[in-house]
Amino acid sequence: MRGRPDPAAQEPCARGVNPFPPRDASPADPKDRRAGDASVRASSSSGSGGSGRARVGPAAVAGGGDSPGAPLSEERAVELMTAAFAAAAKAQQGAAEVAELATRLRVQETVMAQQQASAHETAAVMQQLAAVTQQLAAAEAARDELAARVRVLEAAAVQQQQASAHETGLQELDAQEAATQAAAADARTLQAAAARSEDEV
Fold it and tell me: Where does the record place the region Disordered (predicted)?
């Protein structure tokens, strides 16, 4: 006669745990036990056709091209790590290139600022040179005008000297002529007086 089944013996099966683990499995390893529990629960849920979702452990993580819910393979993890390292290297290289370009831009801006300052200084020097040139031209014009006036004054002075000399000569001639006439008159007077004296004698 078959007796009533023991509830304690059926409890592991009700929880979806295999009460008869394989001989090569190590029940002392908690990771293996959790993985076994998760696989048993997933297979039990899919086989029974129930509406509840299968609960999976931390090992069943979806990633990349793997199907959702499938364990992440070691090769896929290596590929993702390699891609992450490559992206980080490219980002670091891009940051270095950006820093180099920024440095070159600052150098170019400094050179352009120096060139602009030099251009401003050159323009200021050219303006000063133009002003000095204008002042020199004005001074040369004033000098030429003064030289012309000096020549005119010199010519007028020469003419005045010549006129004065001529007038002085004429005056001297007139004085000499007057003196000569006076002397002649005196001589005639003396001759007349002498003649009268002789006549009286």
Answer: 1-74
Q: Give the residue among 83, 34, 89 at the shortest CA–CA distance from 63.
A: 83
Q: What pLDDT digit, counting tens, does each position of 41-69 carry?
A: 444 444 444 444 444 444 444 444 444 44
CB 16 within 8 A of CB 37: yes
Q: For the full predicted model, state whether its pTM sits above 0.85.
A: no
pLDDT value for 6: 52
Question: How long is the chain?
Answer: 201
Q: What gap in Å lies between CA 41 and CA 17, rounded to an integer?
A: 7
Sign of CA dihedral 13, 17, 18, 23: negative
User: What is the rounded distance in angstroms from the CA atom of residue 15 to the CA atom of residue 22?
Assistant: 18
